[in-house]
Fold these 4 entries.
Entry 1:
Amino acid sequence: QVQLVESGGGLVQPGGSLRLSCTASGYDFRGYWMYWVRKVPGKGLEWVSDINTAGGTTYYADSVKGRFTISRDNAKNTLYLQMNSLKPEDTALYYCARRGWGTDQDYWGQGTQVTVSS
C-alpha cells in the first residue's frame, strides 16, 4: 500500500527556517509528481508546491514563492520542503502528497505540524 510519512515539523520563530521530509513507500516513487499542501487554521487547505518526477520542474504558490524550495531524492524515495523566512501565517499542518495520473488517485500523508511563533 502507498505510504507517505512526513517529518521535520516543529516550533520556529518568525524569520527562521525548517526542512520537512516525506518518505514514500508502496509505489514507484520516481514515476510520480509530488506536492505539498497545508491546512491553515481559519483558512482551510492551501496548495504549496509541486515537483515533477525528475525534480527539474517546480511550481509554488505565490504566498511561499522565493521562501520555500521543494526538492526530491529519488534514490531515497524522499520528498523535501525547505522553508526559509517563515512567517506566522505559515503555521499549518503540512501534508506530503502524490499526484495521480491516468486512473491513479492522489495520496496524502498524515501531516506534520509547523508552528511559527515568537
Entry 2:
Amino acid sequence: QVHLVESGGGLVQAGGSLRLSCVVSERTFSTYHVGWFRQAPGKERESVGSITWNGGSTLHADSVKGRFTISSDYFKNTVYLQMNNLKPEDTAVYYCAAGNLAGGGFDYWGQGTQVTVSS
C-alpha cells in the first residue's frame, strides 16, 4: 500500500506563487508515475500533470503550461508542484496520486490540499 500526503496549500493573491509537496510513503518502483490533479467546486476532477518516478519525465496540462512545474526529489520521496502566476480559476483542491506507468492509471491518492486564489 502506498500512502501519499499533500501539503503547501493556502490562500494567495492572483499573480502569486505556491509550492505543493506530495510525500510518498515509499520509494515506488521505477515503473510508477505520480500525478497532480485538481477539483474545483461543481467541476470534474482534471489532470494538472504527472512525472515518472525514475527519470523525471513530465507532462503538464495545456491550462497550466508555462505557469506550473512538476518536479521530484527521489531521495526525499517527494513530488512537487510549483505554481506561479496563479489565477482565480486555479482555485481547487489539489491531489497527488501514484500508479503503475504501464497501466496508465492512478491507484493511490492523497487526501488533498486546498488552494484558493483571490482576485
Entry 3:
Amino acid sequence: QVQLVESGGGLVQAGDSARLSCAANGLTFSAYVMGWFRQAPGKERDFVAVIKWSGNTTYYADSVKGRFTISKDNAKNTLYLQMDSLKPEDPAVYYCAARVSPLVTGAEAYSSWYDYWGEGTQVTVSS
C-alpha cells in the first residue's frame, strides 16, 4: 500500500519561510505527478502546486506563484514545498497528493484526479 506522510508544519511569522516534506512510503509506489493542496477552516481544498515525478515541470496557483517552490527527491521518494514570504492568508492544513496515471495539462489543479493523499500538516502564520 502507498502512504503519504507530511511533515514540517508549525507556527511561522509572516514574512518568514518554512519547508514542508511529504514522504511517499510503499515498495511499489509510482506516480506521474505529485502536488500540494491546502484547506483553510470553512473553505474548500485548494490547489497550491504540482510537479511531474519524472521531470521538473511545475505549475503553481496564482496565490503562491513567486513565493512557493515545489521540488522532489526521487531517490528518497520525497516531495517538498518551500514556502517563502508567508502571508496571513497562507495558514491552512497542507496536503500532499499523488496520481499514478498521466493527466492532461491543466487538470493537475483539480483534487478529484489524485489517487493518494496524506493526512495533512498544519501551517499557522502569525502577524
Entry 4:
Amino acid sequence: QVQLVESGGGLVQAGGSLRLSCAASGRTSSIYKMGWFRQAPGKEREFVAAVMWSGGVTDYPDSVKGRFTISRDSAKNTVYLQMNSLKPEDTAVYYCAFGRTVAIPAVASAYDYWGQGTQVTVSS
C-alpha cells in the first residue's frame, strides 16, 4: 500500500511559476515511475509529466514541454513538478501518481496509486 501527499498548489498570474511536491509513503520500494496528471472542470484527465525512478528518464506532452520539469528525490521518495511560464489553460487540479511498472507512463491506467490532488489556478 502506498500513500501520496501533494502540496504546492495555489493561485498565480499568467507567466508565473509554481512548484508542486508529492511525497510517497508506505511500500515505496515498489516505485518504478511517478507522474503528474491534471483535470480541469468538464474535461478528461490529462497527462502532464512522468519520471522513471531508476534512471530519471522523463516524458512530457507537447502542451507543457519546455515549460514544466519533473524531477525526483529518491532518498525522500518525493517527486516535484516545476511549472514555469504558466498559462490560464494550465488551470486544473493536479494529481500525483505512483506506478509499479515502467509501462506507458502517459496513460493514467498505467499507475497504481494516486494523490488527493492540489489546485493550480492561473489568472490572466
